[in-house]
Amino acid sequence: MKKLIVFLVCANLTFFAGADRAGWLGTRRIAVQKAQQKKPVVAAQACTDQCSQKFLPASVPSDSVTFDPIVVLVKKKIFSFMRRYKIPGVAVVLYAHGKPYLFHCGYADRDAKVPVTEKTLFEVGSITKLFTCLLVAQEVLAGTLSLTASIRDYIPTLQANRRLKNMTLERLATHTATLPFNVPESINTKEKFLSYVARWRTPCTASLAYVYSNPSIELLRCALEETTGKSFQDLLVHRILLPLGMSRVGIAIPEGYATYCARCYDKMGKLTKRWHHPLLLGSAALRASSIDMLAFLKAAIGLPGTPERVVAAMHLTQTPHVYQGNASIGLGWCIRDLQILASVKKRSGPLFKNACVCRVKKNKQVFNGHAFFDKTGTTEGFHAYIAAMPSYSKGIVVMMNRTLPKGWKVASKLGREILLRV
Prior knowledge:
With 422 residues, the chain is α+β, with helices and mostly antiparallel strands.
């Protein structure tokens, strides 16, 4: 009898201990779930080339990538990045190991809690320059434009200014034409801009100088419009966007697309106005979604299925024309040696400082797919970054709807750290 009583007491103690443990586990599980709900919502998607246009809804991750180590790595990087810099919304496009991945994180509208999706439109800032230079490259290959010709040859209102004789299309595309970073704010139309350039006095210097310049790219845009007789938007849509399967957004928001535009926030985290500058169309006005940028990224990598005309023009833009230190400059792209880039600890910083700018010899102006190509973009409320590694069939695009002090460095650091690790 005593043994039976002891057994029953022990059994009851075991039962209550088990019940306590089950209750503790349930409490713990609820706490974990609440903690997880505070994290930014992420949608990661992957698909093969055969179904690259058939994406799952942004809120439904693909089961095939749930435990993909690439997804785990990228999510961790994005979560850390968003927490550290208090970014409302981020979209990351990654192509690696034969698969595209889309990551949509946080909010396109922070106050209304509208999530970032594959349809959200971001301003990509100076990445627009890559599209402008791609259009120029297409015209060069068609024989309509020449990189060695002066801008005076294509814009009649500039022909009287003899000082522009050496301002070639190549110099404009490589930011070595000595034009300033921006023109005065009062110059806000194409007519005023061309009148300003018609009076421009080019510094008389024998050596090349690199001066990052929005007006340089706008002159290329004007040359395209003068030569083809078409608007920049029409050229974008019919020469790049539609051939690559991108939406028709470009630099003008079509009716019905405005609701997809992300809200943007300044360096203080306050809501700010979206980009609107009537002059800087070819240098900073493009808007795109993650699916749009995936299509452009595939073209930048040179994946099968890209139209031959676009591939040839893309290779021309990715051909080095001038170099400074360890970096070369193509038509819009910054080109770096991959081995040197991987060995530099501060990958977001410049690989050169106070180095002379030199022209690449003609016989060495050759496309090298083993190089690392990238470009940053910034507007008043957005940062963007794109990088491509053609020979490795890898590339990345980062877009976010808040500006930061030196945010272009922050965005490029995130993009490079992910791309060089996957």
